Amino acid sequence: MIRSRFIRSLTLVLATFATVSCSDYSPTGPSAPATAQDGLISGVLGIVTNLLGTVIKVIEYVYDPNGIPVTGVKWSGTHTNQVRTVSGYVGTAGGTLVIPGSDFTITFPNGALSRTTLVTITSDATGYVSYDMQPHGLTFAKPVIVTQRLQNTAVYKTSLATNSFCAYFAKDLLTLSGILQALEIEKTTIFSGTTAGQAEVETWELRHFSRYMLASG
Q1: Where are the domains of the chain?
Q2: What is the maximum span of the chain, computed from C-alpha positions, in angstroms?
Q3: Cα–Cα distance between 151 and 78 in angstroms, integer?
Q4: 122, 121, 119: which is closest to 83 by C-alpha?
Q5: pLDDT tens string for the chain (217 positions)?
Q6: Alpha carbons 110 and 25: distance in angstroms, whole number
C-alpha cells in the first residue's frame, strides 16, 4: 500500500507539482485580493496533517471525444441541497478555497496561475455532487487539487465509493440523471480513513475549469 498524508479540516490542502501543457488564458479584472464567501482563500499553501490516510485506489486520467458513460453521484440524506458559492482572487503564489457545506476544498499550488485571477466555485442544488468552476476555459501550469469528502454522498460505505471519480463535461447538462457522457475522467486518488479499506476522501487533479461532478462507472 502507498501511504500518504491528507488533510481533513476547514482548510483541507493537498498539492502536487506535476506540470501539464495547457492552452492560453488571459484573465482580466482587479488584481487586489478579495474576501472569499462561505470559505477561505490564502496566498500561502499550508498543510494541516490531523489525520493519516492510506491510498486505496488511483483512477487515472481518461479522455474520449466520443464520450465516456458515467452515472452522477447524489448527495445522501445527511446533506442539505442548496446553492453554495465561494469566490476569491488567486495569485501566482496559489491559495485555497473552501465550501464547508459541500465538504469541498480546492487548492492552487504556487505557479498554477500566471497572474491574479478571480475564481468562483458553485456547488449547485441539483442533489448531485456537482460543481461549476469559473471562469470556464481557465487553464493551469500545474494541476489544481480538489479534495472531496465522501461522508455525505450516496456512495459512502458502498462498493461504489472505491469506483467513484471526477468527471468533466464540456457543457452544462439539462439533467444529471441517467447515463451521462463525460468528456474526461480526471485523475482521482481515493483515500481510506480510520476504517481500513473504506473510502473516506478523494482528490481530483484538474487541468482546466468547467463543469465537474462526482460520478461512477
Answers
A1: 3-18+34-216
A2: 47
A3: 9
A4: 122
A5: 333 333 333 333 333 322 222 222 223 333 334 334 444 443 322 332 234 378 999 999 999 999 999 999 999 999 999 999 999 999 999 999 999 999 999 999 999 999 999 999 999 999 999 999 999 999 999 999 999 999 999 999 999 999 999 999 877 776 788 888 999 999 999 999 766 778 999 999 999 999 999 999 8
A6: 17
Q: What phi and psi values does residue 196 have, to the nearest 5 degrees? A: -60, 130
- Number of other residues whose CB lies within 10 A of the CB of residue 1: 9
Q: Which three cell numbers stand for residue 76?
A: 445522501
In one-letter notation, the amino acid at residue 148 is: Q
Distances in Å between the Cα of 202 and the Cα atoms of 103, 207, 214 are 11, 17, 10
Residue located via cell numbers 473504506: 198
